[in-house]
Amino acid sequence: MSNIKAWLVSFRLRTLPLALSTIFMGSIIAAWQNSFNADVLIWAAITTLFLQILSNLANDYGDAKSGADNESRVGPQRMIQKGVISLKQMKTAMVICVLLSLISGITLLFKSFSQLQWQQLLFFILGISAIAAAIRYTVGTNPYGYRGLGDVYVFIFFGLLGVAGTWFLHTNIWQWHVLLPAVTIGLFSAGVLNLNNIRDLDSDRQSNKITLVVRMGKKAAAWYHLSLITAGWISMVTFIYLNDAISHFWPLLITLPLFIRNILVVFRNKEAQNLDGELRNLALSTLMFVLLGGVKLFF
After folding, report:
1. Beta partners for residue 210, in sequence order
2. I want to staple 235 with a disulfide (CB 3.0 to 4.6 A). Which of 40, 184, 215, 292 is the partner?
3. Helix 87-112 and helix 38-66: axis angle, to 10°?
């Protein structure tokens, strides 16, 4: 395997559509309210991609050091595990991603606010928190991803902060109803993580990586998955109803069969490796959900 291909595999490109969904959703809600800023969309997307890649690299690094990536792992083989990328190289790549995230994030703040304000400081602190959270997921003496808290991280950063924060950077005001679509994307993102953890249940249990699925078991995890997807849809439908916005957002309803299919696959699945493709499918379904929610803004 070439070195470039090895790094592309470590970047986990299939996770990037899910990261972009957060930025697109916040931007679409802002555009619907006539508060769209193209610079915010561009720089928020770039920053999010760097943060997502950082999280992926840190996950590889942490799992390799802890032994969670081993021969019994079901999912795609990691490059450190294969010996293609060293721990030192991965650590260097993480540092580069941190620096790039800081540069793009600071640029985003200056593009979002016309002058230096307390909001810039607040978002800078949130950005630092996002970087720390991306690393601490599996790295360190007591990573929270090994204590069943990964779902909380995903919900907060991919949902609440990702969507509502992007919307605020466009509008520079606050309205509580934006939390409803933020909750939707947060729950769908937690669903992707849940699929990952169901797939890796046996290897995580053997390596003492205590995910939420390890705590609750496979059967309960399937019902948990159903609740995540259902609650996500209810939250978005509530937003549409409260804002009398069905004429703008009805195209996203086209994706409902994709989510139903995803739930049925989880309940019917017998082999862990069969869920690997569903991670990609749910991430792409979420991105399609978001993009169709904005299609009426342009047509």
Report:
1. 147
2. 184
3. 160
Q: 200 is written with which tokens?
A: 């890796």
Q: What gap in Å lies between CA 236 and CA 23, rounded to an integer?
A: 16
- Tokens 């342009």 — which residue? 298
Angle at 282 between CA 198 and CA 144, to 5 degrees: 45
Contact 35, 237 (CB under 8 A): no
Cα–Cα distance for residue pair 209/148, rounded to 1 Å: 9
What sign does the CA torsion over 103, 104, 105, 107 have? positive
- Which element (helix H / strand E) includes 226? helix 218-242
Question: What is the Cα–Cα distance from 59 to 82, expressed in whole angstroms?
Answer: 15
d(CA 160, CA 60): 25
Give the residue among 64, 49, 213, 216 at the shortest CA–CA distance from 138: 64
Half-sphere exposure of 92 (CA within 13 A, CB side): 6
Q: Where are the beta strands (DSSP E) in the chain?
A: none
The length of the chain, given as a count of residues: 299
DSSP 8-class letter at 160: I
Maximum CA pair distance of the chain? 56
Tens of pLDDT, residue by residue over 125-174, are 998 998 888 888 778 667 787 888 889 989 999 999 999 999 999 998 99
| C-alpha–C-alpha distance, residues 163 and 121, integer Å | 19
pTM for the structure as a whole: 0.92
65-84 residue pLDDT tens: 766 555 555 556 677 777 77
Residue type for position 42 = I
170 within 8 A of 111, measured Cβ to Cβ: no
Tokens coding 80? 């450190």
Lowest mean pLDDT among 169-178, 197-206, 217-226: 197-206
Please give the CATH number for the structural domain made up of 3-297: 1.10.600
Domain boundaries along the sequence of the chain = 3-297
What gap in Å lies between CA 194 and CA 224, rounded to an integer? 8
Tell me how far apart the alpha carbons of residues 289 and 276 are, in angstroms, rounded to a whole number.
21
